[in-house]
Automatic annotation (TrEMBL):
Signal peptide: none annotated. One of its GO terms (biological process) is retrograde transport, endosome to Golgi. One of its GO terms (cellular component) is cytosol. Pfam families: DAO. It comes from the Eukaryota. This is FAD dependent oxidoreductase domain-containing protein. SUPFAM superfamilies: FAD/NAD(P)-binding domain. PANTHER family: OXIDOREDUCTASE TDA3-RELATED, SARCOSINE DEHYDROGENASE-RELATED. It comes from Orbilia oligospora. InterPro entries: FAD-dep_OxRdtase (IPR006076), FAD/NAD-bd_sf (IPR036188). Residues 83-424 form the FAD dependent oxidoreductase domain.
Amino acid sequence: MSGGALRWVPWRSTLEFLRQNRVYDVRSHSADSSLFLLIANFSRPSPSLRPENKSLKSARSARSAKPLPFRQYPENLISMPQKVVIIGGGIVGVSTAYYLSHHESNPFVTLIEASSIASGASGKAGGLLALDWHGNDTASLARLSYQLHASLAEQFNGRERWGYRELTTLEISCTEGKAPSRHVAGVPDWLREGVISKVGNLGTTQSTAQVHPRRFCEAIVKESKNLEVIMGHASKVVLYDNKKVKGVEVEFDGIRETKIIEADVVVVAAGPWTSRLLPNIPVSTQRAHSITISTQTPVSPHALFTNIKLKNGSLATPEIYPRTDEIYACGDVDKLAPLPKFARDVKVDEGRCRQIMKNISVVSEILAYGEITAMQACYLPYSEIGPGPSVGWVPGMRNVAVAAGHSCWGICNAPGTGKLLTELICEGRISSANIQSLDPGRYTR
């Protein structure tokens, strides 16, 4: 099922869609005489990812320090939630849905997404995974998540389905129009000969890897059990008078009325839109542009962080990620356009995209003669306090959790985030990694 497949469609088209995509247990909610909201319940059986599973044992063994108990709010100590609603169909929300759906307590999980699965940064990111590039606040989370990426790829044929593979990651430097004074070793053969002045190794195939993030999200949704996906705009987290969660208010295109989706627990994983639902969790954002390129000549799996001194004296630092079927490149972030209401409404500045192409052409003739196949933009979420995302219970709200503000590391750290939130929700404490410093309660101190 593609990220945009769940949508408003005529009923006959819905039946054809189900036959083509093998969606199970579909229920419809009437909108008018001709339109139906498609809600898919993914019940495909999958191997369990419980603690005794070898993949999780290897993930836990990767921790260098014993995890500390995660700070708890007494009112959030719940047991066996029957229904969990997740707001956000990006990689953090999808990963959380997956691990919740495979937990032995078997909660019913509903994922609410306004546009399509991986419609924001999760579908337009480079997909770099790094084992040991992280500060103290996120190092434990990153180690867990890196191992989970590897185990998910092994379990579900991720090399074929979402382009998982190990990478060598390099930092390269050059000056446009100026040849280096000496030969530089270690330059990949698809870069311009006699242009690169410096090469540094940032990661090996033991410490860096990649995924195609949109394809990863789509596959993990399919591998979730008993997952209900609702395409609608989550406009409000609804609370009872005692601030205990009641559910999520959802608006649907074409229907004036809103509907409350009831829940025992709500997880807000809405990326840069998180603060619109949780004003006490400050998440800011910046826009990032990227392109994908098709080339006539295959290139080796070397991720590149570049430092290119241009003829006008400015410094360009595009990042280049070869994939199995294309090359991805991204440029600098900006704050020139405000965050829109929906991911589908993000505006793309084609001039910025063409500048990325111009800059990377300095280092590679193969890229220079490539064809741009996509120009795109997305918004990255940043926590305004602290160096890492907010992961855990929201202060002052009973049974509401948040996972947002991962910045450019959302793809890398999403599986670990989903696993840890599942532990918090279903077991009462986080045990697989130490993320105490990511506690959302830091905003109230």
